[in-house]
Amino acid sequence: MQNLEGKTAFVTGGASGIGLGIAKALLGAGMKVVIADIRDDHLASATDELAGGGNVLAVKLDVTNREQFSAAADAAEAAFGKIHILVNNAGVAVVGPTELATFSDWDWVNGVNVGGAINGVVTVLPRILAHGEGGHIVCTASMSALVPVGGTAIYSAGKAYVTSMMECMRPELEGRGVICSAFCPGAVQSNIAEAGKTRPADLADSGYAEADKRRQNGGNLMHLYQTKDEVGQRVLRGILADELYILTHSEFLDGVRERGEATTLAVQDHLPENPEYKQTFAMLFSNPAIRDEIVRQTALKAGRKT
After folding, report:
1. Does the annotation mark 155 as catalytic?
2. Is residue 85 part of a domain?
3. Which of 146, 123, 137 is nearest to 84 (CA)?
4. Within a domain: residue 2?
5. How far is Cα 42 from Cα 69, in angstroms, rounded to an integer?
6. Into how many domains does the chain fold?
7. Of 155, 161, 208, 277, catalytic
8. Most buried among 48, 187, 253, 264, using CB within 10 Å?
């Protein structure tokens, strides 16, 4: 999938924030882009901003609705022929003490962040495999998947889920021409804080009303965040380089290292290995896609230094 010119990308949550930044970058790389979003006002403004003419298709989509997802994919294929890149980007968030969370908080966030990604894969992956021209699936996760912190249990757990999805699907599909990537950004200028406007009435019961109010009154910190255009270009570079992990913010380096060190030290290496067990279940002990990513990232870093 190194040659993106003329191919088609399907971006959920594509009408604002991160999704719009990704759509803009892919359009600039010569792709036809489908922006799928739940908000009509965002679809209208994004269409104007992209100014892509016949190379942009805006479709209304609630990613939790499987029938809508299938219809949106049909519309994309009717307009552009084939889908080559799927970006599962639509996301919502709640944060605060876990004991305040209701079932509705868990169900709403995971319905979008996890269920939406599942619906994207089940709906679009068979279509990519069927045309045989190769493809790429990107799931927007978060640095919260790699450096989880207190007060983010619902959000971080879902982002860890989709990161693991990409890690597991990568070795399955790469040999068939489909690359899978987990996009784990830090803070980005987006509209995720407005996600509650699209929260379904049957999932409106939340334990985080006061926490949300305090967060909204905490001041505007957007000047500290990366822009949608910056992260869109980062995702484009990650796609072109076939990266398994597409990361953005250097400030998380210590946290990523600490987590790796903590899990490494927790391995019970003082116990003797069972050779038969290790040989019988060898496929469980190492992911070749992760080994390949070490080689890839080492080469990319070396290239940036020269």
Report:
1. yes
2. yes
3. 137
4. no
5. 18
6. 1
7. 155
8. 187
Give CA–CA dist 244/167, Å, rounded. 7
CB 161 within 8 A of CB 148: no
222 or 268, greater pLDDT: 268
DSSP letters spanning the chain: ----TT-EEEEETTTSHHHHHHHHHHHHTT-EEEEEES-HHHHHHHHHHH--GGGEEEEE--TT-HHHHHHHHHHHHHHHS---EEEE-------S-GGG--HHHHHHHHHHHTHHHHHHHHHHHHHHHHH-S-EEEEEE--GGGTS--TT-HHHHHHHHHHHHHHHHHHHHHGGGTEEEEEEE---BS-SGGGGGGG--GGG---S-HHHHHHHHTT---GGGSBPHHHHHHHHHHHHHTT-SEEE--GGGHHHHHHHHHHHHHHS-TTSPP-HHHHHHTGGGS--HHHHHHHHHHHHHHHHHH-
Pairing of strands 32-37, 8-12: parallel
Q: Give the C-alpha separation, 76 to 67, whole Å.
A: 14
Region 270-295: what's the mean pLDDT? 96
Q: Model-level pTM greater than 0.90?
A: yes
Tens of pLDDT along 182-204?
999 998 988 877 888 999 999 99
Determine, yes or no, domain membership for 281.
Answer: no
Phi-psi region of 242 (alpha: psi -120 to 50; beta: other; left: phi over 0): left
- CATH number for the domain spanning 37: value is 3.40.50.720
166, two tokens: 């990409």
166 domain-assigned = yes
Give CA angle at 242 (118, 257), nearest 5°.
Answer: 85
Neighbours of 63 (CB within 10 A): 27
